[in-house]
Amino acid sequence: AGQAGAKPDAQQQMVKNVMRGAAVVIVPATAWFESGVFIYWLTANALAVTQTLALRQPSIRSAVGMPPMPTAASSSASESGMLSAFGGEPAAAAAPPKAAPLILDEALLSATPPQAGRPRGKTAGGRGKKRSKR
Fold first, then answer.
1. Beta carbons of 76 and 83 less than 8 angstroms apart
2. pTM of the prediction?
3. Residue 90 near residue 25 (C-beta atoms within 8 A)
4. H helices of the chain, where?
5. Model confidence at 21, in pLDDT bands (50, 70, 90)?
6. Alpha-carbon gap, residue 58 to 5, rounded angstroms
7. 97, pLDDT greater than 90
8. Taking a C-beta distance cutoff of 8 angstroms, is the pair 72, 5 a contact?
9. How far is residue 51's CA from residue 35's CA, in Å, rounded to a whole number?
């Protein structure tokens, strides 16, 4: 979602608008749900929003031992500091590892799948005779 204070790009803005639209659409779409679901959603979301807003405050972050919020300018400076600490330019992306070849057993491929349920004509005891009704 990007750094705090950074300008979102076009894709981030589009995702943000889609999520806002989904929030509006979900209310009538879930109107027939049980009330317990709404109580859970309401309390969970209220706590999440409260926690997010609280942890954006510098005084609360320092009180709980969290570092200050990064800014867009300090983010690029820290990345260049990391690059210089480890020898300059980042390494080229490595090729993805090759997958192991898939070996299929011929017997497994030719086997017929088991049928659902019991075979017809057999009883639970497996004797093959049908019980007559008395």
1. no
2. 0.41
3. no
4. 10-29, 35-55, 58-63, 72-85, 106-110
5. very high
6. 14
7. no
8. yes
9. 24
